[in-house]
Design goal:
With 181 residues, the protein is of the alpha+beta class. Helix content is 21%, strand content 34%. A hairpin with a 4-residue loop joins β7 and β8.
C-alpha cells in the first residue's frame, strides 16, 4: 500500500515543481557596446639586409618580432606589396606568392610561417642564389591576425582571401574594427 501511494505522489510532486518554478519574465537588458572581432593588423617595412640565409630551407628569412603569440584559435593572413608600376600585379598580394621576373625562368617565392610565438617571412629564389642582388632596399608586408571562427565566416561567404581588398571590404560590411599595431 505504501508503495502505491509513493508511486502516485512522485508524479504529482514533479508536476507541481515543474509548474511552480516559473517566475515572471523580467525586463530586457540594455544593448551592449558594438564588439570588436579581435582583428589586428600589423604593417612592416623589412630591410632586405635583415634577411638571413637558412641553408636547410635554401631561403632567406627574418623574424617579425612584433607579432604576439598566435594561438590555435587564431588565423594569420599575410600580404606582400608588389609595386604595380614595376609588375602587373595587384598592389597587395597574398602569400605564399611566386614572383616571376621579366627575363629568364628565375622566380622568388615569398612565404611566411608562424611558430606559435612569432611570424617569420621568407624569400626563396628558384635558382638557389640571393633573391635580390644586392640584398638592399625594403619590402612592405601587411599581416592580419583574426580568430579562426572569423576565418570560417569569411570562407562561408566566399571572400577571396588572396585579395586583401576583398578581406578589408568584408570587415567593412560587417562593421568589424581593425586595430592597427
Amino acid at each position: 500500500m505504501m508503495m502505491k501511494q509513493t508511486l502516485l505522489i512522485l508524479p504529482m510532486m514533479a508536476a507541481l515543481l515543474a509548474a511552480g518554478c516559473k517566475g515572471d519574465k523580467g525586463d530586457k537588458g540594455d544593448t551592449g557596446p558594438q564588439g570588436n572581432a579581435n582583428v589586428r593588423q600589423y604593417n612592416y617595412s623589412l630591410n632586405l639586409s635583415d634577411f638571413a640565409f637558412f641553408s636547410a630551407m635554401n631561403a632567406y628569412g627574418t623574424d617579425v618580432a612584433s607579432v604576439p603569440a598566435i594561438s590555435s584559435t587564431q588565423a594569420v593572413l599575410s600580404y606582400i606589396y608588389i609595386d604595380p608600376a614595376v609588375d602587373n600585379y595587384n598592389e597587395w598580394v597574398a602569400m605564399p606568392f611566386t614572383h616571376y621576373f621579366n627575363t629568364g625562368n628565375a622566380y622568388n617565392v615569398h612565404s611566411y610561417s608562424v611558430d606559435g610565438t612569432s611570424l617569420w617571412i621568407y624569400i626563396r629564389n628558384s635558382t638557389g642564389v640571393a633573391p635580390y642582388s644586392p640584398m638592399s632596399g625594403t619590402i612592405s608586408y601587411r599581416t592580419f591576425v583574426i580568430t579562426s571562427s572569423q576565418l570560417g565566416a569569411m570562407e562561408s561567404e566566399h571572400v577571396n582571401l588572396n585579395k586583401m581588398q576583398d578581406v578589408l571590404d568584408y570587415f567593412d560590411r560587417h562593421d568589424i574594427v581593425v586595430e592597427a599595431r
